[in-house]
Amino acid sequence: MKTLQKTLFALVAGSLLSVGAQAAVSYGSGYTGQPYAGVKVGQFDLDVDGADKPTAYGVYGGYNFDPNFGVEAEFVGSDDADYKGGDINAKTYGAYGTYRYAFPNTGLYAKGKLGVARTKVDASGTTFARDSGTDKDTSLAGGVGLGYNVNPNFGIEAEYDKLGSNADLMTIGAQLKF
């Protein structure tokens, strides 16, 4: 297993293990930290000439320390899209710090996130041998989104993420809060 993958798994495992301890902590204003988990679907926009945009599927989880600040980890993979007679697909792992701004009395919130992502793009074009290969990039990544809390335990989000210099990701998702 690669070092970044081990680090991301350690961060997620550590976050999940600390959830039990953190859930009992009150933050003065009566807010108790809140873990969440969700799924998302969307589309990768890869900086590869002649490639279709692969459909993305992912899972994510996080923990809100207070109503504004939290942490989040995600994995997003894709199906195979057409690329010069062959296929192209992408995978990304990310760990982020998050900030949410809740619009008063609406259930709507804006979300920003900043962290590190590892993105891997595999291409197998058949037109030319040079059209095949793998590109891996670990870099600073971030995103912005808009969400709506349907009720205290369920929300939906639309998000745009910039994953380094060669990939963008647009998704919609749903999350359960515990």
What is this structure, in a nutshell?
With 178 residues, the protein is mainly β. 12% of the residues lie in helices and 62% in strands.
Q: Number of domains in the coordinates?
A: 1
Largest beta sheet: strand ordering? 1-2-3-5-6-7-8-9
Radius of gyration: 18 Å
Distance between the termini: 30 Å
- β content, as a range? over 45%
Kindly report the CATH topology: Porin
CATH architecture: Beta Barrel
Number of alpha- plus pi-helical segments: 1
Which structural category fits the helices and strands? mainly beta
Gross morphology: elongated
Task: Catalogue the unreliable spans.
Answer: 12-28
Secondary structure: helix percent: 10-25%
Mean pLDDT: 83
* Oligomeric state of the chains in view: single chain
How do the helices and strands follow one another from N- to C-terminus?
HEEEEEEEEE
Number of strands: 9
Give the biggest beta sheet: 8 strands, antiparallel, barrel
Query: In CATH's first tier, which class applies?
Result: Mainly Beta
Please describe the topology of this protein.
Elements: H1 3-23, E1 34-46, E2 55-64, E3 69-78, E4 81-83, E5 86-102, E6 108-124, E7 132-151, E8 154-163, E9 167-177
Antiparallel strand pairs: 1-2, 1-9, 2-3, 3-5, 4-5, 5-6, 6-7, 7-8, 8-9
Question: What would you note in describing this structure?
Answer:
The protein has 178 residues and is mostly beta strands. It has one domain (3-177): Porin (Beta Barrel). Helix content is 12%, strand content 62%. Strands 1-2-3-5-6-7-8-9 form an 8-stranded antiparallel barrel. Strand 7 (132-151) and strand 8 (154-163) form a beta hairpin. The protein starts with a helix and ends with a strand. Mean pLDDT is 83; it is low at 12-28. This is Cell envelope biogenesis protein OmpA. Pfam families: OMP_b-brl. Residues 9-165 form the Outer membrane protein beta-barrel domain. Keywords: Signal.
